[in-house]
Fold this protein.
Amino acid sequence: MPPKSSGSSAVHASPDAPAVDVWVNGAVAFSNAPFTGITDYAELAAGTYNVQVSPTGATEPIVIDADLDLAAGTDYTVVAVGLLENIEPLVLVDNNSAPAAGKAHVRFVHASPDAPAVDIAVANGGPVLFSNVPFNGVGDYLPVDAGTYDLEVRLAGTETVALSVPGVALEDGVVYTIFAMG
């Protein structure tokens, strides 16, 4: 029996990089991914894969070259983070298990290289959902009541709002990842 497959997606979060192709074991798996682009999952058998990233339509320069071990039955997202001169992969293990009735699951990924550590909070004095998340930091999945929220990105440990994000709709039974890209 062959090893169970894994799902893998890619996110382009490098603000000064051009659109890219993502290569897996020497073949283009995702083509022309733009900044802030998020691909669908690709099914891969469990195993070790060489992942490379290059500008769209080019084989050079290779800006990321990494070997990734993918476990059976596990979903991953590979995020290209940092400015182009320091670009690197951030590998996330995705938990796509179904939330409880009336809930959504949400996590936060700080992929903005020009921003300090931040808190993510519900606006107007609501609770802090993710606290002191630095660049390349990932907040754990958090169950929240399904609904629409006005969120704030604050400088970590302060009430200083760096960005207001109104009307974030979190649907019942859905798993979300919120990315900060800058």
